[in-house]
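Example S7 (structure tokens).
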């Protein structure tokens, strides 16, 4: 039976050299008290150190919290993450990676969760095609994020005449999880949480390795007072339970409409007419009635708000990689949850829906792309984002839209009257002959027969047989000055090059009618 202890006592359970897996997703399910006490112990006593830190999703939305509790030289020897802090205040751990003070890997999020699940089930590892010929492939980096990272933790195997990526099982000594409530037996419930983030898989990964599970919860309840369907981890798997000691509500609070049958009345919110809205409008024109649409982080995350503004949201079914299906992702300001979802799957299940080919279309951000149509979203310049669910989402989706500005870092535009003007170019060109890595392999997409478009505020490109093909140009844009002169490669221009729809660049709603 689980023992209820203080956060400081929980930190003492972690030993030097342990492999520690932490649940969470930005602020959701963040075990704030335990992580804080681990840092305090390191600062006071110098332990635990030389940890292997595992996190399928980046944790932390407030400065110096989440993963940044581990951002001390010597505390972590190796980090394996599904995603990292690409923006916001939680950047200290990324600095350790850039400074080669910690070994660091990024793994595709779906295989990461499945690997934890297989580890917990006693399997030797995971075979998957997801991530082949991308940065996850050991021939193209194997997820390594800096020069200090030498070892390959992913292998290429031939099986039944096909190539597979093979991930050996992960030894987990300590799993740190969080729920809403725990009863006297240590059963963990998620009654006030909008996602579950692979909590059972993470717990099992430690137990099958002879390790321990430490759970943090908001409150202790009597056995039998929470609906059994809201149970997430049996008490048999939980060794220690910590009650929140640090006012967790300020870290993670979500409206009941993101996780219960309660429904929010949705009212239109007019978005300002900017180049971001231009990209979103052009994306929306690609959708059709009842399409099952995946949304990625960044500009595409605002697509549901635009769909509401245009009055077509009820005719689309949105999903995001953290579990929600239906409803409006990001409506409450948090990308990873949906208001009024139809259902919420666990992270170990939602990726199966994607990789079996159930998505109709995916709308994703575009960090940078090369002349061949390859996209890099995991690491560039001074930013580490990790693959996240990118590889899983693009694996079998028949139609993929990448959205991003043509340049970044100071881009200024004026959109009005059916045209767009470039007032100041960004410092960084996002389309180049060479990019730092490949998160999306265009050649594989062509072999799979996928339709791929690259949508910017001034032009639309499509993936052709030889790479990018310029298909549309925005009104007000000069082809040579605003596009060709900013490319360091010759791009194919479609014979039927057309102007983008003028409605995209006007203040009034477009009046979209989904096909």
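Recovered sequence:
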């Amino acid at each position: 039976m689980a023992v209820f202890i203080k956060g400081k006592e929980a930190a003492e359970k972690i030993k030097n050299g342990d492999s520690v897996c932490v649940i969470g997703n930005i602020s959701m399910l963040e075990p704030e008290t335990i992580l804080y006490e681990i840092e305090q112990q390191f600062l006071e006593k110098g332990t635990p150190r030389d940890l292997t830190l595992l996190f399928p999703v980046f944790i932390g939305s407030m400065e110096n919290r989440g993963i940044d509790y581990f951002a001390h030289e010597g505390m972590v020897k190796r980090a394996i993450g599904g995603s990292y802090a690409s923006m916001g205040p939680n950047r200290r751990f990324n600095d350790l990676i850039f400074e080669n003070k910690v070994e660091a890997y990024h793994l595709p999020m779906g295989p990461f969760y499945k690997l934890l699940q297989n580890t917990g089930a006693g399997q030797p590892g995971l075979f998957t095609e997801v991530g082949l010929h991308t940065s996850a492939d050991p021939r193209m980096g194997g997820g390594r994020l800096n020069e200090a990272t030498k070892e390959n933790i992913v292998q290429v195997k031939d099986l039944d005449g096909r190539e597979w990526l093979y991930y050996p099982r992960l030894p987990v000594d300590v799993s740190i999880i969080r729920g809403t409530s725990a009863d006297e037996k240590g059963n963990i419930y998620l009654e006030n949480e909008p996602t579950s983030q692979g909590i059972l898989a993470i717990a099992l990964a430690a137990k099958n390795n002879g390790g321990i599970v430490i759970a943090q919860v908001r409150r202790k309840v009597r056995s039998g007072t929470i609906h059994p369907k809201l149970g997430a981890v049996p008490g048999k798997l939980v060794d220690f339970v910590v009650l929140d000691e640090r006012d967790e509500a300020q870290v993670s609070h979500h409206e009941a409409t993101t996780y219960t049958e309660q429904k929010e009345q949705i009212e239109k919110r007019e978005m300002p007419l900017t180049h971001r809205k231009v990209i979103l409008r052009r994306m929306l024109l690609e959708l059709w009635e009842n399409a099952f649409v995946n949304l990625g982080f960044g500009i595409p995350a605002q697509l549901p708000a635009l769909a509401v503004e245009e009055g077509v949201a009820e005719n689309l079914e949105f999903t995001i990689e953290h579990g929600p299906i239906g409803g409006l992702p990001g409506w409450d300001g948090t990308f990873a949850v949906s208001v009024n979802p139809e259902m919420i799957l666990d992270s170990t299940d939602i990726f199966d829906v994607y990789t079996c080919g159930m998505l109709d279309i995916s709308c994703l951000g575009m960090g940078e792309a090369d002349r061949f149509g390859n996209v890099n979203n995991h690491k560039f310049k001074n930013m580490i984002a990790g693959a996240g669910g990118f590889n899983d989402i693009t694996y079998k989706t028949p139609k993929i839209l990448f959205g991003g500005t043509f340049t970044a870092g100071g881009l200024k535009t004026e959109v009005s009257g059916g045209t767009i003007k470039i007032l100041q170019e960004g410092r960084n060109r996002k389309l180049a002959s060479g990019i730092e890595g490949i998160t999306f392999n265009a050649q594989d997409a062509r072999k799979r027969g996928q339709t791929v478009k690259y949508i910017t505020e001034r032009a639309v490109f499509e993936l052709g047989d030889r790479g990018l093909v310029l298909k549309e140009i925005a009104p007000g844009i000069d082809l040579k000055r605003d596009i060709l002169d900013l490319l360091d490669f010759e791009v194919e221009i479609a014979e039927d090059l057309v102007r983008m729809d003028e409605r995209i660049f006007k203040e009034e709603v477009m009046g979209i009618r989904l096909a």
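Notes on this example. Residues 39 and 45 are 10 Å apart (CA to CA).
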